[in-house]
Amino acid sequence: MKAIVYTEYGSPDVLEFKEVVKPTPKNDEVLVKVYAVSANAADLHLLRADPFLVRLSSGFLKPKHTILGSDIAGRVEAIGSNVKEFKLGDEVFGDISAGGWGGFAEYVCAREDALVLKPANLSFEEAAAVPMAAVTALQGLRSKGGIQPGQKVLINGASGGVGVFAVQIAKALGAEVTGVCSTRNVDIVRSIGADHVIDYTKEDFTQNGHCYDLILAANGYHSISDYKRVLTPQGTYVMTGGAMAQLSEVMLKGPWISMTGSQKMGNLLAKPNKQDLSFIKDLLESGKVKPVIDRCYPLSEVADAIRYLEEGHAQGKVVITVVQNNET
Ligand SMILES: NC(=O)c1ccc[n+]([C@@H]2O[C@H](COP(=O)([O-])OP(=O)(O)OC[C@H]3O[C@@H](n4cnc5c(N)ncnc54)[C@H](OP(=O)(O)O)[C@@H]3O)[C@@H](O)[C@H]2O)c1
């Protein structure tokens, strides 16, 4: 089968499009024929071993898993003897990062617990756009953020992979949502349901006098004291992404602020979770959440897809179409 392989850490230039052995599922795995797979910042971190600590879990000198790609959508082509939930031909999607990655390929083996049946109203590309970004948004808003209906919620970085899901999930959970993005993304963020949109090139939301019950920082940078100032007295700030300085500040100061006052400030390291993905599947099927795709690339051009993602200006998700004309 064809796959995108890397055997050393580096820029997207080290990615090779080559022939590799088609995998065979273990007892608790299914073999998925990959129709589409999306690119995430996590692929980039593993590709470049950046931050350096990535090497502790992913191979100190060279990558342990040589095929990246976590968010797959495809069709079950073979099943292990212990698999109960899926049958041949099922259309599935999921985040396979906990089981060894490998989605930038024509076939991949995945554990049963990483996969959920694909919503019938979504294309394979749309389904592949969902898992990691949407689960991160859900865990940031609900598990860590404790979102409640009627709350005022602000999403910084509302136009990116995580942000477009965060805006829609927060709306679906009954919040009044403010999305922060640049001028060119104002219409997109409004179209996915944000009640208010702040163009960060024209207005600084930390200086306009408004306060929020919950802030999800998906991108950009503001100091932790800026975020603290625009939280309500019982408010919660969850950092899921953005500048390294933003992460350092929340890791150093967040626990102290949370322990000594009524506001909660912390970061989230999202984990693949089948229940969370199933919850999102329901939102997708009901039309309350719709994937936003910026661009699609063929499998042979994963390096270009990752270069584009690395520029940091994707509008929604960047997706790889593995099987062309794949409508079913
Ligand atoms: N915690 C976790 O477990 C977890 C999981 C997934 C992702 N992440 C992290 O989350 C972050 C976002 O991921 P993503 O997939 O959403 O990234 P992304 O899709 O690459 O984000 C790009 C978007 O961010 C916007 N943006 C750039 N600078 C901004 C700023 N200063 N303020 C507001 N928006 C800005 C861009 O629009 P403009 O250029 O027009 O502003 C673009 O639409 C990354 O740092 C990633 O590593 C963390």
Explain the layout of strands and helices.
Layout: E1 2-5, E2 16-19, E3 29-39, H1 41-48, H2 54-58, E4 71-79, E5 91-95, E6 107-111, E7 115-117, H3 124-128, H4 131-144, E8 152-156, H5 161-172, E9 176-181, H6 186-191, E10 196-199, E11 212-217, H7 224-229, E12 231-239, H8 244-260, E13 264-267, H9 274-285, E14 293-298, H10 302-310, E15 317-321
Parallel strand pairs: 8-9, 8-11, 9-10, 11-12, 12-13, 14-15
Antiparallel strand pairs: 1-2, 3-4, 3-6, 3-15, 4-5, 5-7
The structure holds NADP nicotinamide-adenine-dinucleotide phosphate.
Description:
29% of the residues lie in helices and 26% in strands. The chain has helices at 41-48, 54-58, 124-128, 131-144, 161-172, 186-191, 224-229, 244-260, 274-285, 302-310; strands at 2-5, 16-19, 29-39, 71-79, 91-95, 107-111, 115-117, 152-156, 176-181, 196-199, 212-217, 231-239, 264-267, 293-298, 317-321. The strands form three sheets. Strands 3, 4, 5, 6, 7, 14 and 15 form a seven-stranded mixed beta sheet that branches. Strands 10-9-8-11-12-13 form a six-stranded parallel beta sheet. A two-stranded antiparallel ribbon has the order 1-2. Helix 4 (131-144) packs across helix 5 (161-172). The longest helix is centred in the C-terminal third of the chain and has 17 residues, at 244-260.
Overall pLDDT: 96
Write the H/E string, N to C.
Answer: EEEHHEEEEHHEHEHEEHEHEHEHE
Please give the count of helices: 10
Give the number of DSSP strands.
15
**Ligands present:** NADP nicotinamide-adenine-dinucleotide phosphate
* Proportion of residues in β-strands: 25-35%
Describe the global form.
Answer: globular
Global Rg: 20 Å
Class by SSE composition: alpha/beta
Q: Span from first to last CA? A: 22 Å
Contiguous low-pLDDT stretches (5 residues minimum) are none
Helix content: 25-40%
Largest sheet: number of strands, sense, barrel closure: 7 strands, mixed
